[in-house]
Automatic annotation (TrEMBL):
It comes from Olea europaea subsp. europaea. Keywords: Membrane, Transmembrane, Transmembrane helix. PANTHER family: EXPRESSED PROTEIN, LATE EMBRYOGENESIS ABUNDANT (LEA) HYDROXYPROLINE-RICH GLYCOPROTEIN FAMILY. Pfam families: LEA_2. This is NDR1 HIN1 13. It is a single-pass membrane protein. Residues 121-219 form the Late embryogenesis abundant protein LEA-2 subgroup domain.
Length: 242
């Protein structure tokens, strides 16, 4: 009778066998794989944006305060000075030469030289800076010539005289205007001309220049060709007769 033999496993044989480990769940593996890409939120970007907005608001308030301060100072100075419009008057008009010569039966040529003397009066407590001014001589609305008064500076409480000469060199007039001019000169000895111009001025207050003001000059002068002189002068300034 055969004995029942149970195989005996040696300790060495057991140690040489590989150990089988159960696989980990898929969720755990995925979590472990992606865990190194996660960063906790920081507040550095939001704090820098807030500080930038705060700086912009501070600068805006500062510039607004400075602008209001400068405006208030200028307003106080203007109210203290009480600036007035400058006075610019055509004081004298002299005819140096006037000649009218018919060129054709229906046209005539005019040659004229006029010397004008203006008086500028500044009653303000501050100086006035005048820009270049231009004056036009016209006959019945037709421009004949132009004179220029250079710009200048006038101190406070002062009177200054400026002059200009308008030269008209054989300007042709046609048909009706030529006939009227010849009739006025030869029969009536009275030629009426108009002098118009705009004078631009700015007031200087402690280094600041005010917005420009404008004085309009409109003068009607009557010239006697025989006497070569001005027989009448009437001027208006800004619609006021002087």
């Amino acid at each position: 009778m055969k004995k029942n033999q149970n195989p005996v496993v040696n300790a060495t044989e057991m140690s040489t066998r590989p150990t089988v480990t159960a696989p980990a769940p898929a969720a755990a593996v995925n979590g472990a794989h992606h865990s190194h890409h996660y960063y906790p939120p920081t507040s550095s970007s939001s704090s820098s944006s807030a500080s930038f907005r705060g700086c912009c608001c501070c600068l805006f308030l500062l510039f607004s305060f400075l602008a209001l301060l400068i405006l208030a100072v200028i307003l106080v100075i203007v109210l203290a000075v009480k600036p007035k419009k400058p006075q610019f008057d055509l004081q004298q008009v002299g005819v140096q030469y006037m000649g009218i010569s018919p060129t054709t039966p229906s046209s005539a040529a005019v040659s004229l030289t006029i010397h004008m003397l203006f008086t500028a009066v500044n009653d303000n407590k501050v100086g006035i800076k005048y820009s270049e001014s231009k004056f036009t001589v016209m006959y019945r609305g037709i421009p004949l010539g132009r004179g220029i008064v250079p710009g200048f500076y006038q101190p406070a409480h002062s009177v200054r005289q400026v002059e200009t000469t308008i030269a008209v060199d054989r300007v042709s007039l046609l048909q009706t205007d030529a006939a009227n001019l010849i009739r006025d000169a030869s029969l009536n000895d009275r030629v009426e001309l108009r002098v118009e111009g705009d004078i631009g001025a700015k007031i200087r207050i402690i280094g600041f220049t005010s917005p420009g003001v404008q004085v309009s000059v409109d003068c009607a002068i009557v010239i006697s060709p025989r006497k070569q002189a001005v027989t009448s002068k009437q001027c208006g300034f800004d619609g006021l007769s002087v």
